[in-house]
Amino acid sequence: MKQAVIVCHRGACRHAPENTFASLEKAIELGADVVELDVRPSKDGVLYVLHDDTLERTTNGAGRLSDFSSAELDRLDAGTWFSPEFAGERIPRLDAFLDACRGRIGTYVEIKEGDPGEVRDMLAARGMLNDAWTFSFDQSIRALARAKVPDLKRMLLFAHVGSVERAVAQDAHILEFDKDTLREDLVKEARDANLITQMFYDGDDRDMFEKAVRYGIEQMNIDHVEVFREVESALLAPAE
């Protein structure tokens, strides 16, 4: 067994406001290999890094992001909701966020709304395609990505496809499990099919982390990085 690739879900979202430059910097500080980020466009077509389709939960704005211009979005505070020390954090524009990632950390871009071709071109312009992949919960975006940007690696959820065979048939590069679908035989089957195995888990249960390590999950899309590394280190330590 070897150490798993660490994907920081929405950045280091337990330490800083999610999907901000602050959470990106903390993810890098924690030693993460990849940052997961969510993307959607403004009213005037500028791609922003934000999870929700509305602004209320993580900014001082209100309403749908897509109803606001980039000039309006750039003025919003995306940090105070998390802690006063992050007052003044902005909703990142995707281009600036990728600039901050370049040469420092890989990127997993979940496209909530938007054109996967535009995302691919922004990554390619920065030489970041090799360390990036994409996913969307929107089936039409997944289909468009498969057809339009075959050189941008694509992830699928086991919960969506229901089998390793279907993931292979849909040209997946990465197959993600969760706490409800994680099974050792399925992980082995996926790896035997040359799929990269990933697990999403936003909890901190050590037994769940131990299963992931023992089953050989290659990438962990998680919130609690320190807890996972503690569990992993104990399991990978050589026997005395």
Kindly state the percentage of residues in helix: 25-40%
The H-level CATH homologous superfamily, spelled out, is Phosphatidylinositol (PI) phosphodiesterase
pLDDT average, as an integer?
97
Number of helices: 10
Structural category? alpha/beta
Q: What is the CATH third-level topology name?
A: TIM Barrel
| Strand order in the largest sheet | 1-2-4-5-6-7-8-9
**Main β sheet profile:** 8 strands, parallel, barrel
Coarse shape: globular
**CATH C-level category:** Alpha Beta
Question: How far is it from the N-terminal to the C-terminal residue, by CA?
Answer: 17 Å
Low-confidence stretches: none
User: H/E order of the elements?
Assistant: EHEEHHEHEHEHHEHEHEH
Entry keywords:
single chain; 240 residues; alpha/beta; TIM Barrel; 8-stranded parallel barrel; 10 helices; 9 strands
Summarize the structure in words.
The protein is globular, with a radius of gyration of 18 Å. The protein has a single domain (5-236), classed as Phosphatidylinositol (PI) phosphodiesterase (TIM Barrel, Alpha-Beta Barrel), CATH 3.20.20. It has 240 residues and is an alpha/beta fold. The chain has an eight-stranded parallel barrel with strand order 1-2-4-5-6-7-8-9, surrounded by five helices. It starts with a strand and ends with a helix. Helix 4 (116-125) links the parallel strand 4 and strand 5. Helix content is 34%, strand content 18%. It has helices spanning 21-29, 70-73, 94-101, 116-125, 139-148, 158-161, 164-169, 184-192, 206-215, 225-236, and strands at residues 5-8, 34-41, 47-49, 106-111, 132-135, 153-157, 174-177, 196-201, 219-222. The mean pLDDT is 97. Helix 9 (206-215) packs across helix 10.
